[in-house]
Each structure stands twice: as structure tokens, then as C-alpha cells.
Sequence to fold (214 residues):
Amino acid sequence: MENPFCLHYLNDHDAVLRFNGAPTANFQQDVGTKTTIRLMNSQLITTEKRFLKDSLYNEGILIVWDPAVYHSDIPKWYQNPDYNFFNNYKSYRKLNPSQPFYILKPQMPWELWDILQEIAPESIQPNPPSSGMLGIIIMMTLCDRVDIYEFLPSKRKTDVCYYYQKFFDSACTMGAYHPLLYEKNLVKYLNEGTDEDIYLLGKVTLPGFRTIRC
Fold:
């Protein structure tokens, strides 16, 4: 997002979720300054050398997820995680005992994948959903309304993967490993906003789970 109005608009939200190592410093005008929740994958916690020292990871509620084997139970997953982040997790908890830091239930990504497969017109790759889609589900659980930005690309559509890195790959938008296309179809179906909001702002508005009546 590159908009001088974004700073105040995003900060006016009751809660803002950010992903992995996404910063606000030097990008405040575009992404605001508020961080309420930070959802990180286990690869970052395992391999990011600055994780235990960088103040970026001391703001907001932290949640880590690890792509477990399909519907693996917790004991089996603990013995064989995709990334063995547990040592760094323990070290972080010792250094920051008052920092809220949670581990996402390993079955949750696959429960979401089952839903994506159920509504897909064909078989999809057996890979876990993206951090983006997991974050959407977390916020739909906590909030009555969820605004999502650039998950469905606006007219500014580019191959830039992250606003804070000069890394280009169309797979970040269309998907390669994660079932992104099916995730986007589901989000578009649930959208309560307008097509104009998507085209101009990349904005989707979803209802929270407690407001949905089936």
C-alpha cells in the first residue's frame, strides 16, 4: 500500500496483524505503526539470527505455526516438526517471560486445508495453507469484522513479494507451494465489501465467525 492516508486509517483499526518479520519502521506512511499480533512461521524462528535480539519481535502478541504432517497429533508432531523451533522458543520465553507467545495447534492448518479441498472443483496440492490465510482465520475468530489488504490484488498488482524487500516472484500472488488460488477464491466468496474496494484498495471485508449465521 502506498497511500498517505493509510497511516491513520490502519492505526484506527482495533487490532492489526502482521506476518513474520514485516516491519513498520520506515514504512509507517504505507502500513501504519500498530502491531497487535504477529504470526510467524517456524522457519523464521529457527533460522532468523536476530530473532532473540530484535525488538521487532517484542511487540504485540506472538504466534508461531509449523507445517506439521497432515493431521499429525501433537506428540508425533513434537517429535518431527517441519522446523525444530522449540529450542529458540524456549530461549525466547526465558528472555521475555512476560511476552505473550503462543504456538498454533498443528492440526489447525490442515483443518483449514480440508475446507479448501471440500469447496474446490478439483484436487489441490496437499500442502498447508499460507500464513496469510491462517492469519485471516485467526482474526475472524477474534473480531466481528476483518479488513484484509492486498490478499486479493488491487490495480497496483505487481510481482513484489513483500513491501519491505526487493524480491519479485509471481508465486507470491498466484501460489506455488501453498494453495493460494483456492484461498483467494474462498476470501472473494466471503467478501462483504465491493469489487471497487478490491480494485482500488486491494481491500476485502470479511465477517467474524461469531457474526455468521449458517
Notes: The chain has ten helices and six strands.
